[in-house]
From TrEMBL:
Pfam families: OstA_2 (PF13100)
Position of the signal peptide: 1-20
Taxonomic superkingdom: Bacteria
Stored Gene3D superfamilies: Lipopolysaccharide (LPS) transport protein A like domain (2.60.450.10)
Signal keyword on record: yes
Organic solvent tolerance-like N-terminal domain: residues covered: 49-183
Composition-biased stretches (Polar residues): 583-593
Region (Disordered), start-end ranges: 566-612
Keywords: Signal
InterPro entries named in the record: OstA-like_N (IPR005653)
Name the record gives this protein: Organic solvent tolerance-like N-terminal domain-containing protein
Length: 612
């Protein structure tokens, strides 16, 4: 007996709970006027506003409208005219028309739709709202106004829990300082962070960023870009495996496989790390940096530990520091540092720490090779003709030393205080050496037979070259000199003081710019995750409930993901059959006739009904 009573009690409690749960799913409502029209709206209540809008309440969502058609058994309504929808304190939406299915908690709004959140406002023509997923979706074009920008796209999806928008197709962010265009942007409203996917550009007044995957802080104006990323300035382009950009500081940095292209001066710097300061017109490049410029259809390459490019396009200055190496097909050189003035066509090789005699310090001294002719000194200056882009002349200041490797054996040597060389068709054809000059020269016959070795002192010497070999030497005001047979000149006396042949350092090909150096260890690039794969927005419920209702103005084919919307944008403001009746109550009449007995159901005062 007791067991039966317990069973009955349990059954009653279960039925009560089920009824309570079912009751919780039903839509509550308030209205000023209602009637039924079974011919037009079978099983539905037709409601309209008199003094107050029709009001629906369902599980945390409230809807107000001027007119409505409510299908009680289906828990579904259509709302017309000045529709307002509110979910909690964070979501509100206005539209001309809306539908809502209480069983699936799926809503549809159209006509001047405006959804407001604390950080953003969404405006579109047609919007779908899934309360179970807490997602909204449009495909007829939408505009989102953020605290800093305006975002537009053809397709958009909003995720309430993440406060995130996914914009697809013709995506555009408009800000007073820049415009972003992309195929796909994920935008987080609270932070203002935007993730860019596919071909994307960020175009400002003074720069344009391109990437195929990137991140941009729309409020902080900073960004990080990977995959085919580049920044274009007025006259400079920066490329790299990854780019960082700060608009506030006019700063950008590039990492791994970087290129800085100077479009104004037809030159390029490569390396694996670069920093660009646009307002200062300066770029610093490290990690195997190489500057390349075109000169008379031939490229000049300069490498050092660090390269610095400064100045406006019409007055670019290139500086290289430490272990400078220079290569051109007809010339190469090395030094401790280098200075290049592109406007004047002047290149200077310098040792910024002179005075030491250690082997390491000696290798820092400037050296220049033209064929087998080696020139050294405290400073070497090369001058190019800007019009012809050919080498014009060179100057060696202080401790000038010219060494020409003899065609058979030994070295021809000339030293003095100043050396001036002249070029013709990029070939060194004449050298003048002045002040306290000395020479050691291997004299040969036309058949290259050695006559003897001469040592001469003079005030000035002229040397003429042919095919990079010494052809003639002229002495001016010679004070001492002799020519001795080879056997009478000891090997220890076959070099002048300061002789230092560095031919083993000569660069014979472009790859020698890095000879003897370990490749830099590249930084591991921090990637940007791919967009999340999200399911179809129009997913039917597991229990098979339709998202909307058979009485919806939407057709089954409308509840499919499409590239664009096909639903007519113009919506009826009131349900069919509802019209203004001269006998119906207006707000002023309602107040006047408050004490009168109502004549029919269309003039019933405000009623509050709940469907149990």
């Amino acid at each position: 007996m007791l067991r039966n009573l317990l069973y009955i009690l349990f059954l009653l409690i279960s039925i009560s709970l089920a009824h309570a749960q079912e009751t919780g799913r039903k839509i509550d409502y308030e209205n000023d006027r209602q009637y039924r029209d079974e011919e037009r709206y079978p099983g539905a209540l037709v409601m309209s506003k008199v003094n107050n809008q029709v009001h629906f309440i369902h599980q945390g969502i409230e809807v107000w409208c001027n007119n409505a058609v409510f299908y009680e058994s289906d828990n579904f309504f259509k709302a017309y005219g000045e529709v307002r929808m509110k979910q909690g304190d964070t979501v509100s939406m206005n539209s001309d028309y809306a539908e809502y299915n209480g069983n699936t908690q799926f809503a549809f709004a159209s006509g001047k739709v405006k959804m407001e959140r604390p950080q953003t406002t969404l405006e579109t023509d047609t919007l779908f709202f899934d309360r179970i997923k807490q997602e909204a979706y449009y495909r007829s074009g939408g505009k989102v106004t953020d605290t800093a920008s305006v975002l537009t796209s053809t397709i958009g999806r909003y995720f309430f829990e993440e406060d995130k928008y996914t914009f697809l197709s013709n995506v555009k962010i408009t800000n007073p300082d820049y415009i972003v265009n992309s195929d796909h942007i994920d935008f987080y409203s609270e932070s203002g962070h935007a993730y860019l996917y596919g071909p994307s550009t960020i175009e400002g007044e003074e720069s344009t960023v391109y990437c195929e995957r990137g991140f941009y802080d729309t409020r902080g104006d900073t960004g990080y870009f990977v995959k085919n990323s580049k920044i274009d300035y007025d006259n400079r382009t920066v490329l790299g495996d990854s780019l960082f950009f700060d608009r506030n500081k006019s700063f950008a940095s590039a990492t791994n496989n970087i290129q800085v292209i100077d479009t104004a001066n037809d030159s390029k710097v490569t390396g694996h790390y670069a920093e660009v300061f646009r307002e200062k017109d300066s770029v610093i490049i490290t990690k195997w940096p190489v500057a390349a410029s075109l000169q008379n259809q031939d490229s000049l390459f300069i490498h050092s530990d660090t390269l610095l490019v400064t100045g406006k396009p019409e007055n670019r200055i290139l500086r290289g520091f430490y272990d400078v190496r220079m290569y051109k097909t007809d010339m190469s050189g090395k030094s401790d540092s280098i200075f290049v003035n592109q406007r004047d066509g002047i290149t200077k090789l310098i040792n910024i720490n002179p005075g030491e005699n250690s082997p390491t310090s000696v290798k820092r001294n400037p050296v220049l090779w033209s064929g087998f002719n080696q020139m050294t000194g405290d400073t070497i200056q090369i001058i190019s003709n800007k019009e012809t882009e050919q080498l014009d002349s060179l100057k060696v200041y202080n401790n000038a030393f010219l060494i020409n490797k003899d065609s058979i054996d030994g070295y021809n040597q000339i030293k003095g205080q100043i050396l001036i060389g002249l070029f013709e068709e990029n070939e060194l054809y004449k050298v003048d050496i002045d002040k306290n000059t000395e020479t050691l020269y291997y004299s040969r016959t036309e058949n290259s037979d050695l006559i003897g070795i001469s040592k001469t002192l003079s005030s000035r010497i002229e040397v003429y070259f042919k095919e990079r070999e010494i052809e003639d030497v002229y002495y001016y005001q010679a004070v001492d000199g002799d020519l001795k047979p080879e056997e009478q000149v000891l090997k220890s006396n076959r070099t002048l003081q300061g002789f230092n042949w560095r031919g083993d350092e000569r660069l014979e090909k472009k790859q020698d710019l890095f000879k003897g150096k370990e490749p830099p260890e590249l930084v591991k690039i921090q990637g940007i995750p791919l967009p999340q794969q999200i399911e179809n927005f129009f997913e039917e419920r597991e229990d098979g409930d339709m998202l909307l209702n058979e009485n919806s103005r939407l057709k089954p084919q409308d509840l499919k993901d499409k590239v664009q919307d096909s639903i007519p944008s113009v919506q009826p403001m009131i349900p069919e059959g509802v019209k203004v009746d001269p006998n119906s109550i207006t707000p002023s009449e309602a107040k006047t006739n408050a004490t009168k007995k109502e004549k029919d159901s269309l003039q019933t005062p405000k009623a509050t009904l709940k469907i149990e």
